[in-house]
Amino acid sequence: MTKKEIAALAEKELMKLYPEAACTLDYTKPYELMFAARLAAQCTDARVNIVTKALFKKYPDLRSFAEADLAELEQDVKPCGFYRNKAKSLKEMAGQLINDFGGEVPDTMEELLTLSGIGRKTANLMLGDVFGKPAVVTDTHCIRITGRLGLTKNKEPAKVEKDLVKLLPPESSSDFCHRTVEFGRDICTARKPKCEKCPLSYFCKYYAEQISATEKKK
């Protein structure tokens, strides 16, 4: 079975499991998704959603973020961890969006990467969820699952992204990545994947290797 065939099967099965593919970060404005994604670095989406519920009320627009007292903003985002760097990024991003992009989130990878604290992962999230463009968001779940399926041997996000771009239909690549997040939390967990109840096991390289290893021990 080719990698492209495996990717197609994975997409089919994940679509059955999670027909409503969606980002788990709460937001109402495009920049809020970008800010939430910045806060989500090494923090759970659930915790970020708790923090941003109050944060976006306190700072209702880009100008209020840009003019925020940095020390106060640090305390506001402290529950998300790495709060000094994250607060600095939010304040700087707000200023950049106002001064460089007329208060709008840019819609190209090149422009998004000029923003403070934004890497390819968040840029792809914005391109896919906000602008409906082809995007591959390689978070830890996506990297782990596509690796186990045999779609990539890489661990670095940019390299995994490059591998998956070749295998996934552009129009559904963003949704595929959202589904791997839910699948990674529910079934294909990092430490103890629930292979016995996994609908992807019949074409999964990791599962085949586990079965083979068990047989050899007998």
Please, what is the oligomeric state? single chain
Please state the overall shape, judged from the principal axes of the Cα atoms: elongated
What is the level-2 CATH architecture name of the largest domain?
Orthogonal Bundle
User: In total, how many domains does the architecture comprise?
Assistant: 2
What structural class is derived from the secondary structure elements? Answer: mainly alpha
Distance between the termini: 28 Å
Biggest sheet: strands, sense, closure? none
Low-pLDDT stretches are none
User: Could you spell the SSE succession in H and E letters?
Assistant: HHHHHHHHHHHH
Helix proportion of residues, in percent? Answer: 55-70%
CATH class designation of the largest domain: Mainly Alpha
- Number of DSSP strand runs: 0
Describe what you observe in this structure:
The chain is mainly α. It folds into two domains: 3-20 and 140-217, Helix-hairpin-Helix base-excision DNA repair enzymes (C-terminal) (Endonuclease Iii, domain 2), CATH 1.10.1670.10; 30-129, Endonuclease III, domain 1 (Orthogonal Bundle). Helices cover 60% and strands 0% of the residues. It is built from twelve helices and no strands. The protein has helices spanning 3-17, 30-39, 45-58, 62-66, 70-77, 83-101, 109-112, 120-129, 140-149, 157-165, 173-186, 205-217. Helix 5 (70-77) crosses helix 6 (83-101). The radius of gyration is 19 Å and the shape is elongated.
Keywords:
218 residues; mainly alpha; Endonuclease Iii, domain 2; Endonuclease III, domain 1; 2 domains; 12 helices; elongated
